[in-house]
Amino acid sequence: MRETIVRRIKDLDLKNPILIEGLPGVGHVGKLVAEHLIEELEAEKIIEIYSPHLPPQVIVLDDGTVKQVRNEIYAYHGKDRDLLLVVGDYQSATNEGHYELTGVFLDLCEEFGVERIYTLGGYGTGQFVDKPKVLGAANSLELVEEMKEFGVVFQENEPGGGIVGVSGLLVGLGRLRDIDAVCLMGTTSGYLVDPKSAQEVLRVLSKALDIEVGMQALEDRAKEMERIVGKLQEMEKAQMPFETSGEEDLRYIG
Amino acid sequence: MRETIVRRIKDLDLKNPILIEGLPGVGHVGKLVAEHLIEELEAEKIIEIYSPHLPPQVIVLDDGTVKQVRNEIYAYHGKDRDLLLVVGDYQSATNEGHYELTGVFLDLCEEFGVERIYTLGGYGTGQFVDKPKVLGAANSLELVEEMKEFGVVFQENEPGGGIVGVSGLLVGLGRLRDIDAVCLMGTTSGYLVDPKSAQEVLRVLSKALDIEVGMQALEDRAKEMERIVGKLQEMEKAQMPFETSGEEDLRYIG
Amino acid sequence: MRETIVRRIKDLDLKNPILIEGLPGVGHVGKLVAEHLIEELEAEKIIEIYSPHLPPQVIVLDDGTVKQVRNEIYAYHGKDRDLLLVVGDYQSATNEGHYELTGVFLDLCEEFGVERIYTLGGYGTGQFVDKPKVLGAANSLELVEEMKEFGVVFQENEPGGGIVGVSGLLVGLGRLRDIDAVCLMGTTSGYLVDPKSAQEVLRVLSKALDIEVGMQALEDRAKEMERIVGKLQEMEKAQMPFETSGEEDLRYIG
Amino acid sequence: MRETIVRRIKDLDLKNPILIEGLPGVGHVGKLVAEHLIEELEAEKIIEIYSPHLPPQVIVLDDGTVKQVRNEIYAYHGKDRDLLLVVGDYQSATNEGHYELTGVFLDLCEEFGVERIYTLGGYGTGQFVDKPKVLGAANSLELVEEMKEFGVVFQENEPGGGIVGVSGLLVGLGRLRDIDAVCLMGTTSGYLVDPKSAQEVLRVLSKALDIEVGMQALEDRAKEMERIVGKLQEMEKAQMPFETSGEEDLRYIG
């Protein structure tokens, strides 16, 4: 296996589909949103993507079976338009792989007639974020203006380091194929899986898509995570009362 | 040489062959088992595999000649079914190479009509293991159930980090080619070559294969290794009597 | 997208074009000169180059839109001859990519009939440079002699480590295609973006090209940078009065 | 330029040629011998090899011109048989590149009818070596025996780590093409360029080739290096009289 393999699970006719990408990244914000959408909308898997650019690894499931590391595409039939949701265990382990997998996703977009892409991610601030915002970056000025109406914040020089990985490339290379694309990034500490930030992104996204999605599952995870963070902060304070506020030293867990 | 080369040493008709992979890995458990089987069963080499993904290296043998680093496949004619054994000096040095070499092995499986694969390895626990267990991960639920009967342990979330390398990929990608595959992992410290763990894996494997294999050579190596470990622990205690139990600080030797 | 893409923005007839390369590098000297030339000469973009060897990234612009990381070629119509200017956000992230992108540039040189290449860069000395010099390295002895007349310094064993990246390869591999090429390197500390060094390179280059270019913008940036350096040096002295002269410990900023 | 380029400088008929490889490596022993042979025998360059697996770099020569990093093959017309000498600025910067360049060299061997290869290198002992030996590793038992007659030492388990790079691969992969090959390694500290070790290798090699080669140039370099080593050892002793013998702490210079 030297090439990326696109494995069709189910053939579907799609009407005006929009692609939403939520692969793992900062705070797993994009992943949380996309997986939540798949569950709430009961989307069905139509494609599996295997690639030598993904880590050479299987994941062991609870029942003792394994799952080959891969990316997956789910489809949801909406009233006016359908959704395609890209999720996965990992992003590419190589720079070139990010380009290759983005190319695969864009080829599929052209095949299915996708005219708009939302890529979802987190924007690490290095500090705990009380009220997450949703930052945006789009591949056309019209899209920037449209997104502002849904509460997306466009801030000069943010993110300063650009957007790395598939979430960035789909927006950048999407332009070359005349596909409108915008990246929505929930602000997050970057240290922990952040369902609260994911809720904010989902709020904006469901307005933009004009769909209603239950939030309970994300809400529950957010509360659980808050409890964990609270405990961690207490432990930090107990251990080093005079040194730090305990807010910037947590490891990445979740 | 820019491509992986499959060099046929001998042409053979094989009946219902099962593939067993024992390339180097944690505690060299898989390698010990596969090489022991080759010796005990007097299997013969039928294929050599050279690849630019293996380290660019030759090994110098005792007689002054060299051996190009490679993977090898041996064949054994059993009563009801034949065995194919994959061994080698190294696994791939690159991520992509793991995929490529797994692809080569699976191509050969299809060519020879292999319907089941056993991949063998060690599962590093970070502590010396008195009574090694054999953990498993399979690519079908039926296989999980079948393996439990031979004493294989399927434990939730173990291995938590998944299975990396050819041992994992043969199981994961084997599924895509409709080949049943299971990875058997002997628990081991991860610090030393572990013939004792290899014995446990061999015990389970020979039950599963319904063959009888002498254990003496592995037994002898296990005893020798125990002596070495004992000495190392004494040395550790002598050097730092109050600091550690001496059990977790040994380097990887063997 | 697994291959480098050459995207033509505009078709142009070019007369006797000279190629000038100013991709990012030490002190961003080459980049400053090339971008300054594009602005002053009002050169127009004719080609965009996208490659999986560039970082997998988009840059977020001030208006909220993104720019896919790329290399670009601008054209300027001169009286007697035209100029092609190569600029970009990054150089290749891989060794092989440097060769590939250099190959792409040289293919375009052959297509446009380019007979001479100037590559521009900085030469890091590790110390603040009061009066930058312009060091050279060319791919023919005649070109070495010609460049000496414009004040380019050819110094034995400088740069001792050779010239790495596209600036070096265009000169080295250009020879194999019978294209004269010279690398002009402004001496610079290597710690900061250095518009003063860029001015020196531009002075030499405009003599060699026999064109006149306004220097004001570079002049202004040089003055601003001098103020920053002055402040940094003061801060250094204030913090560690007895330890260092403060001249060798500045981080790379700009 | 995405492929390795073999550039023919001169077409020659060769009779029974032997290939000698002396690319940079431990103590630059192989490089010193091969370059010495080229000079003494007045061999002429017939091939240049450029590759994206070599560092993306040019070397700046004393006259201000550059030399694209490459490997080169020189030819020498002997009485009974000709010699091909492989030298270069660098070995491959990637694992795969070692395989690719070895493949290129072996293709040329087949084209020119080469039936024997000598690869030359150093074997780092980590300590200053008063009387260098020449260790060997060959790809046939006959060749081992033949080489012993010329004073080559074949020592069990040496080199323990195998032979890495082109010097190893030519011997290992040469076997697959039915070309006899032996690697000759002069023992050397591994810290310094070692012309004394090179002399020993040359002595053995010229016996094996049955040619006479002046040694003066290597002799001179060896004496110069001895002076440098002597001074370094004095400096070491002066600086840390009680700590070390000064023999194991020298940096790699030459």
What does this structure look like?
4 copies of one chain form a homotetramer. The first copy, chain A, has 254 residues and is of the alpha/beta class. The first copy, chain A, has a single domain, classed as PAC-like subunit (Rossmann fold, 3-Layer(aba) Sandwich). Chain A contains 6 helices and 11 strands. In chain A, strands 1-3-6-7-2-8-11-9 form an 8-stranded mixed sheet, sandwiched between helices. In chain A, strands 4-5 form a two-stranded antiparallel ribbon. In chain A, β6 (71-76) and β7 form a beta hairpin. In chain A, α5 (195-209) packs antiparallel against α6 (216-239). The longest helix of chain A is centred in the C-terminal third of the chain and has 24 residues, at 216-239. Chain A starts with a strand and ends in a 15-residue tail after the last helix. Mean pLDDT of chain A is 91; it is low at 241-254. The interface between B and D is medium-sized, with 23 and 35 residues. β10 (163-164) of chain C pairs antiparallel with β4 of chain D, so a sheet runs across the interface.
User: Mean pLDDT score of chain A, rounded?
Assistant: 91
Which strand order do you get reading across the main beta sheet of chain A? Answer: 1-3-6-7-2-8-11-9
Assigned CATH class of chain A: Alpha Beta
Summarize the biggest pleated sheet of chain A.
Answer: 8 strands, mixed
Largest interface in this structure = A-B, 23 and 35 residues
How helical, in percent, are the residues of chain A?
25-40%
- Count of β-strands of chain A: 11
What name goes with the CATH superfamily of chain A? PAC-like subunit
